[in-house]
Structure formats: C-alpha cells, structure tokens
Amino acid sequence: MKRIDEVTVYGLGYVGLPTAALMATAGYTVYGYDTNSEIIKTLKEGDVHIEEAGLKTLLRAAIESGNLKVVSEPRQSDAHIICVPTPVVEGKADLSAVQKVSETIAGLIKRGDLVVLESTVPPRTTEKVVAAVIEQRSGLIAGNDFYLAYCPERVLPGKILSELVRNDRLIGGFDKESAQVAASLYSRFVDGALIKCDCLEAEIAKLAENTYRDVNIAFANELARICQSLNADVWRVIDLANRHPRVSILKPGAGVGGHCIPVDPWMLTGFTQTHLIQAARHINDTQPRFIANSVAELLKPESRVALLGLTYKENVDDTRNAPSEVLADALIKKRFSVRFCDPYVRKFKGEEVFASVVTAAKDVDMLLFVVAHDEWSQLDPAELAKVMRRLLVYDATGKVDPTPWRSQGFEFYGLARRK
Length: 419
Ligand code: SAJ
Known about the structure:
CATH superfamily of the largest domain: NAD(P)-binding Rossmann-like Domain
Helix content: 25-40%
Low-confidence stretches: none
Distance between the termini: 65 Å
Strand order of the largest sheet: 3-2-1-4-7-8-9-10
Number of domains: 2
CATH class of the largest domain: Alpha Beta
Number of helices: 14
Bound molecules: ligand SAJ
Strand content: 15-25%
Number of strands: 17
Mean pLDDT: 96
Radius of gyration: 24 Å
Structural class: alpha/beta
CATH topology of the largest domain: Rossmann fold
C-alpha cells in the first residue's frame, strides 16, 4: 500500500487549519497552503484568524514541532487535501475554488499520489470537477495513476478538534484502492470508524446529514408557530414528545444560520422534483421575521431593543448567515431602534457592538435574547433593572430562566412560551 509522509492541505479555514494541525501532530509533514496572503501572514506570526477552542495551542505545537509548515506556494507531496469553500449563490454552489485548486494540484501531482476532497459539494463533483480537471491537465488518470477520494468533514464549530478525532468518517473512494489509501491517511489521527463507500454515496450522505437537520429544525420552528397560536409552551411540548423512544425533535429558535445548514440543502435540489427541502428552507428563512413580528406586538412605537447574541449560534464568533441580521433589519423596518450586543463580535452591520450587556441595556425597552451564549448565565437582572427604561425580556432561545427576571419585576416573554 502507498506510504504517505507528506501532505498538502489546500485552504486553511475552519476545517483545513485544524485538519492540518492534527495531521502534523500525528506525525505527517504537512504543508498548509492558502491563496489568502493575510491568512498566511497571520499564521506565520503564530496567530490564528479563527476562534475555535484549543486551536491556537495545537497550531503552535504543530508549527514548533517542525511538522507543520505554512506555505505561500503549494508543494509536491504524497497527498493533497482540498478544504476550500463552496458557497451557494442564488441556490447554486460556486465550485470555482474547487476547480482552481484542482488545477493547482494538476500541476504538482505525481503518479501514485492521493487526492482527497473534503469540501461540501453537489453530487458527482469529485468525478466531474476534481478528477476531470486533474486528468485533463496532468494526463494522469484517476484510479489508475492517482488515488482519489471524497471524505467530507462533519465537525461542529465549537467542537472541531474533538469531533475531527472522534467522529466516524465517510471514506468515499473513486475506486476500492483509493478508499483504502485514504482510510490509511485518516487512520493515524481519527479514532472514529472509517467507513468506506463510493464518492457519490459520500457526497449525497454529507448533504443528507445537514438537510436532515434543517428539516428537523424547520419542523420545530413550525411547531413553535402552532404552539404560539394555541398559547402552549413549545419547549415543554418538545420535551414531552421526545420522551417517545423513537422521536427526537430539535429546538426552535430565531432561525438557522451558519455556512452549512442554510445552504447545503440546495445542493441536493435540481436533480428531480423536491418539495420538503424547499419547504424547510422557507420556514427557517422566515423564522427571524416571525420573531420580529412576535416582538413587535409587545413594543410601543419607537421603542429601543438590545439584541443579545449576533453570531449564527451560541459560543462561536461566526456571523455568517446569522438570523440576527434579518431580525435586526425587520425590527429597524418597523421603526424600532436596535442596539447590538455580543462578546464575540466587534462590528455588526457597520455599527459598534457592545460587549457588555449592562452598557447595551442602558435606557432600552427590551432585552431580546437571540443566541444563547454561555455568558448570559452571569447576567444579574437586578443590575439590569436599574439601567433599563422598561423592564421587558423576550427570549428566542428557550434557554433563559424566567424566574430571576420576573422576581426583579421584568415582564418575561419568549418564543412560543405560555403568556
Ligand atoms: N439550530 C436550531 N435548533 C437546533 C439546532 C441548531 O435552530 O436544535 C440552529 C443554530 O442556532 C444555527 C443553525 O441551526 O443557527 C446551525 O447550527 P448547527 O449547530 O445545527 O450546525 P453547524 O452549521 O454549526 O454545523 C453543521 C453540523 N451538521 C450536523 O450536525 C448534521 C456539523 O456536523 C457539520 O460538519 C457542519 O454543519 C458542516 O460543516 O457541514
């Protein structure tokens, strides 16, 4: 079996950077390459451009060991791992970064090398883009002259390092030997099972995972709307339903954000007629406006609202596709004045963001919990009661305990909570 010593990781973002660092600490010589010179500069200075638990320490150890080299020109190596973004623009995946990196690899690849695609892509991209570009430009044939696999990342932001090691991993081989070689690459640092399948199965399975989550959350959000109209508590209803051994409903909220769940489902559409996927997207996309309408019913004209939590989910610094943006726009359109507060974010929609809730709350009429950062558990309702103009809380996260707020005289409302 092919021996792999040197690996090049193309794309040093949320997935590529931790993967490169882990591979280096597992003993591979790793070249971390990115086309963004700012990222290369930051990393070379020993800093990281991403907030992720444990990453900075691991990265420094990997660089100090000499096993991880951050490079501004890609090098020849035994394995090439593609971790570049595949954004969805108007419902269609933009594969230009995958195309470009495949061209780069075509200029470097040697007979017997392994190429692995990790980016989330529409079905058949490994074959139709990666294999096709490399074959056309290098003259080498996938499965004959080089190994090729699709091994999607499945890690949860906030827990990336532990999930990279512990999660089971799909190893979609272009052919059986490719799957074996790719499995041996990951076996050095993955403790989870390495499940061999073909490229197409792995591509569809990756999209199915995120789409399943989107559909499940959409159901929870629709249930919240039903409960709200019946004046029932959706959080309690979901807890009760989930006591059934074969039911596991996710949580409703302010909407679905991030760079994966709101966009990946579109990559499964367009092959045949689909309805459920689009319906789920519609429900989740309109959820921030549903929250804005619910909140507006509680406010007088010209009220001031402090939005607590701007990131796409709790305890991360990422604001991509965050529901808070649509929610803020909807509130501003209703002529409320909106203040932004988040310890992980400095600027939002071009405006200053307050790190301290007490500062953000001064003279406002409502605290609106959008994302359940751990920091909120430290809040003191008595202290906030002293600075606010009106004592009103709305919780879209379902995680704020009303009792201490009510005991300080706050009116407390929440998404589909009983009035
Ligand atoms: N959300 C809810 N209710 C829930 C759970 C999440 O409204 O019960 C919202 C969050 O607030 C957030 C959005 O959904 O706005 C997405 O958050 P998430 O934690 O569900 O997922 P991501 O985007 O951080 O990571 C997902 C994960 N996929 C699955 O769990 C199936 C991760 O494992 C993938 O690797 C990642 O997408 C990816 O990169 O594809």
